[in-house]
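Fold this complex.
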Amino acid sequence: MTVLATIATQRAIGRVNPVAKLLAAVVLSLTLLLSIDWVSAGVALVLEAGLLAWSGLTPGQLLRRTAPLWIAAPLAFITTCLYGRDSGATLLTSGFITVTQGSVALGLAIGLRILAIGIPGIVLFATTDPTDLADGLAQVLRLPSRFVLGALAGIRLVGLFQDDWRQLGLARRARGVADVGGLIGRIRRGAGMAFALLVLSVRRGSKLATAMEARGFGSDIERTWARPSTFGRPEWTLVATAALIAAVAVVCAVGAGTWEIVVG
Amino acid sequence: MIEPGERVLLLGASGAGKSTLLAGLAGVLGGDDEGDETGSLTLDGASAASQRGRAGLVLQDPDSQVILARVGDDVAFGPENLGVPRDEIWRRVRSALDAVGLDLPLDRSTSELSGGQKQRLALAGALAMQPGLLLLDEPTANLDPAGVTEVRDAVARVVAQTGATLVVVEHRVSVWLPVVDRVVVLAPGGGVVADGTPDVVLAARGAELAESGVWVPGVAPAFPARVPSPSSPLLEIDRLSVGRRPRVAVADGITATVSSGRALAVTGPNGVGKSTLALTAAGLLPPVGGRLRASGPLSLGASDHPIDWKSRELLTRIGTVFQDPEHQFLASTLRQELATGPRALRLAPRDIADRTDELLHRLRLDHLAEANPFTLSGGEKRRLSVATVLATRPRIVVLDEPTFGQDARTWRELVALCAELLDTGSGIVAVTHDAEFVDALADEVLELGGASAHAVSRVSASIGASA
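Structure:
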């Protein structure tokens, strides 16, 4: 759970309504997905890097949380260079592999894009408490409270499922079926455990639903909210910042002549 | 008919419909598509389902009743759903937490609470709705003795303060006797067997209730006679440290010996690493430090270290009964479930059939041979999980809280089974909070969480009694 746990921070970003964080991340990623070029992604990444100081995360936390990106981005860059669509001057050939100027540019565009979309997403959500997000979704975006609160309560069960999974694994060893042969045996055992976990989770889910109903959840009474969720100046500032970064990135890319809409 | 302000203990054999009645009173029984309804159930003169919020319900399992991540938010959940204004909600949250004696910051994480605290939180959550009727469905069955008292006292205080009506279902009558003023006994087929003040009902029906599985005060559980047998060490535990993750010990310096024909009870409060010790001693988790060594008669040619054994090698050496039986079920029928271990040992089909038939018969599960293990009652699941272990005849049986939440009848059966195992020369390690279980069986007690973690032998009541 440690990788998913919310990081508490004293910085302003910790108090910004999670809905604003969600909107900021959506604005950035949608814009950057319009075109696949290295200039827009690079500019966005540089501007974002300048704002990381305000993220509320220590460099250590930042590195740990974003670790998957630092593996995925170089990997995407290398594979695209080697196997991507070729164009322009050939830089290297060896067997199936051809590296061209075009494939390097494409690799760079994809690698930078993974970072430019992934980092703000991870940073914004690392400091978001699921309860606050649910409050925001229901009160600010007016999503149905039944759905939002049901999902929120369900998230809490994830920790219990992890314990269940561990116990299921130990129990298989105890029952004498944990060393049945090789990869196929392992896959079959995994499937069996997954099914057992499914049964257990349905059980837990229905117990939780009963407990929620017993507390008046799902009745016809108009619900009130114990925690207010507001959308004010800090929230608009965050969304505007994201929009500004996106705009600057697009302008630079158009100026450099690399902007090319991929869809539509 | 229950009058306002009455405090009722609801009893009956398992399957008599106690929990169903509570769910009905709480208005969470579901609609017409989920079953048939005859007769009427009214609360303040209106149907219970339409009166949601008038009755507060606390259930057995502490884990599945926590709804939100922070203590204050969790208590506020009920009033929010009832449309209570914000200021009033937080006033109620504070007074409800106060009433159950939970003196915690409102933003404390609910996952850090102990079982007893979680149950008191659930009680506070119900109280914040200001119900006229409090319904408790075995609220203390899954708690250690300290948690049981904690929750019972909180309920007593709350009922005295608010004057709310109370209906509680529980096998362990003595826990609730100081609180209730009326006892109602339901019949398995429907209807009421007895109804009156606790003294009258228990005097008239005590023996019958004890037989059907209720823990009646004054009716002492019968301890099985034990045949004193010679004993030899099977498993040496020497300054052992245990933990779920490498290098992170939850308990250390544990010293004890598991011997044939002897029972070692592991006791101590929640969270001191009892279950982790059991899983380590069972060869399922690697020791974090110290030594765990199997002696010759146990290792039988395999390594000295149980964690190095193959899964199949464990079967005849150490069997484990998990705290939650559902974690260890593998097959879709009881018969196949019992055959799983023997089949992994590659026994002849004839032998497998003999063993499964014998166990089904001995544990009174023959009529369920083709049923799915997940569909059994709590007591049946417990018996089956013990039977799956017995099927491979291990030298040592490790049990984690075998009597948790069990009625008196299942309890007697479990104790008898364990006594039989000991008499036939198996060693037993049992993690338990159950003082009576320790009295009935343990030859040595290892108390974790205290000053020292060395097993201390006790003069076994059962051996003394049988001599």
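Chain B touches chain A through 66 residues (CB under 8 Å).
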